[in-house]
């Protein structure tokens, strides 16, 4: 039998991540990802159980309640494994490495991610969510296999790591410009994949295609292609009028579980809303579309009001949870009776018709997610009804907020607010972008080096990864373009110089371009694949920044 865990305690109360702190009271002896944790696994000669999630993840909460809060499950975990919890938002390098392994081994990925590793960090079994009974069976089977067939497990893990390294080919090199005909071909391919009935691309679940919308707008600016603009308008309208958009408080949910944007997965992420604010602001600036302007203004307001940090002020927190009081979406959904109780008979019936609230419902238990298929003729009445419903909604249980401040996501917010201030002619948004950049540079740069995240004014130990440097520099350059103030350009160039110095692959790895992290979580598995990310990586802007940094003075 393995000796007892030397620490014998759960150490997550010391974490700067709110997600990790949520697990500080679990009976599981959770540790953070550290060299000491890996060394403990080697000393005890037991596997590592790695669990990766994030604060706004519904199924992460479900597995925590079913398994990690359970004494029987915790006892099995503590006896047979060194248990490590990772916040994917704080350590995207670790998440990306093991998500590649999970997808390679199972054909799919998601969170919570559950991986079993050898003490040197090599994966040999991966999955996602497990209900309690299945998880207990899995723990028993993994422990037995490790005890009786360890050599085979280690051989398999070596093979998996070698395969993952061979897959980590990075992005192909290329010059600073892409031939226009290649862009035209790429756009034509994208347009063939669009959902002409409901907007977006592909089927359910549907994620907001913010990068594609931005790319199509730029293609329209270059070519005046009506097809590109029509695709932007179709998807932009469908999302803005669907349930994925909060029709009362503004802001977009993470994704839609259906193909028509009706029922969202209710968590709201800073990076999604920053990217979509930028896309809608771009659409509004180029076309003057009133819906685009309204959604851009409301999304900017959502960022400032709902995700703006309080202590310290001026930066932006990470996300709002999908759940409130353990019930997914309960803050946001309505029945016809509830509308009437808040608004009275006439306005209640009118609101039900305007927002698509029916007796059958579009969500669970006869509730409906608010949609706005068309603007009603009486705009003043709509504003009055929205305000009354929002006040009533604030009296409900509210989703928890992850107050972690992530450098890259704040960089995205700075860029979006700076550009939206021009599109909407709103100087207040420019001031918000400037305040965020100033506070971020003051707090997240420690001894000349950028850090990944902070909580409550306390900066975490994790170094910034490539996307942090790249997105922050993009935001600083946006401020320079907006204000012509040289300090922003100087700060951006200083950051770019660090990117080129610290993140360029050298020697035999040079073909990979920029590394995603200075030191990846598990170099045994190779660098993360930039094509597998849900949000933009730091590599595309970093390629441009390299040319800035290497340009003659």
UniProtKB/TrEMBL annotation:
Top-level taxon of the source organism: Bacteria
TM stretches of this protein: none
GO biological process entries: carbohydrate metabolic process
Cited InterPro entries: 6-hairpin_glycosidase_sf, 6hp_glycosidase-like_sf, Ssp411, Ssp411-like_TRX, Thioredoxin-like_sf
Domain Spermatogenesis-associated protein 20-like TRX: start-end pairs: 9-164
Pfam families hit by this protein: Thioredox_DsbH (PF03190)
Name of the molecule in the record: Spermatogenesis-associated protein 20-like TRX domain-containing protein
């Amino acid at each position: 039998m393995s000796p007892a865990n030397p620490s014998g305690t759960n150490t997550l109360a010391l974490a700067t991540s709110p997600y990790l702190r949520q697990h500080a009271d679990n009976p599981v002896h959770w540790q953070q990802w550290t060299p000491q944790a890996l060394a403990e696994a080697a000393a005890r000669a037991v596997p590592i159980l790695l669990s990766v999630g994030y604060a706004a993840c519904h199924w992460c909460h479900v597995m925590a309640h079913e398994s990690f809060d359970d004494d029987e499950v915790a006892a099995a975990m503590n006896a047979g494994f060194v248990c490590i919890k990772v916040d994917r938002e704080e350590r995207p390098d670790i998440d990306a490495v093991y998500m590649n392994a999970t997808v390679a081994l199972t054909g799919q990925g998601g969170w919570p991610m559950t991986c079993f590793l050898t003490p040197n960090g090599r994966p040999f079994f991966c999955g996602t969510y497990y209900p309690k009974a299945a998880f207990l069976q899995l723990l028993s089977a993994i422990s037995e296999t490790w005890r009786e067939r360890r050599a085979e497990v280690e051989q398999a893990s070596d093979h998996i790591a070698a395969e993952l390294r061979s897959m980590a080919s990075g992005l192909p090199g290329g010059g600073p410009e892409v031939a226009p005909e290649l862009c035209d071909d790429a756009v034509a391919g994208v347009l063939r994949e669009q959902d002409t009935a409901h907007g977006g691309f592909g089927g359910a679940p549907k994620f907001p295609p913010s990068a594609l919308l931005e790319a199509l707008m730029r293609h329209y600016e270059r070519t005046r292609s009506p097809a590109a603009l029509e695709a932007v308008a179709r998807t932009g309208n469908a999302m803005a009028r669907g349930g994925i958009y909060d029709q009362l408080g503004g802001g977009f949910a993470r994704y839609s579980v259906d193909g028509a944007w009706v029922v969202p997965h209710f968590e709201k992420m800073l990076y999604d809303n920053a990217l979509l604010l930028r896309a809608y602001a771009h659409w509004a600036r180029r076309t003057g579309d009133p819906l685009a302007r309204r959604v851009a203004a409301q999304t900017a307001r959502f960022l400032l009001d709902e995700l703006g940090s309080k202590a310290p002020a001026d930066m932006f927190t990470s996300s709002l949870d999908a759940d409130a009081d353990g019930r997914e979406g309960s803050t946001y959904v309505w029945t016809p009776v509830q509308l009437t109780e808040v608004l009275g008979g006439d306005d209640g019936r009118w609101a039900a018709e305007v927002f698509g609230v029916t007796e059958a419902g579009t969500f669970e238990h006869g509730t409906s997610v608010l949609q706005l298929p068309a603007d009603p003729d009486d705009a003043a009445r709509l504003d009055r009804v929205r305000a009354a419903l929002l006040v009533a909604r604030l009296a409900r249980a509210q989703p928890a907020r992850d107050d972690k401040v992530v450098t890259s996501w704040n960089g995205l917010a700075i860029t979006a607010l700076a550009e939206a201030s021009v599109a909407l002619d709103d100087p207040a948004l420019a001031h918000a972008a400037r305040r965020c950049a100033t506070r971020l540079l003051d707090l997240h740069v420690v001894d000349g080096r950028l850090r990944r995240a902070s909580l409550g004014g306390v900066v975490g130990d994790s170094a910034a990864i490539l996307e942090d440097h790249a997105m922050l520099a993009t935001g600083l350059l946006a401020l320079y373009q907006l204000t012509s103030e040289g300090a922003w350009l100087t700060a951006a160039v200083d950051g770019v110089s660090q990117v080129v110095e610290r993140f360029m692959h050298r020697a035999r790895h040079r073909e990979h371009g920029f590394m995603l992290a200075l030191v990846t979580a598990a170099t045994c598995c190779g660098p993360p694949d930039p094509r597998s990310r849900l949000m933009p990586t730091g590599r595309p802007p970093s390629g441009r920044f390299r040319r800035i940094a290497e340009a003659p003075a």
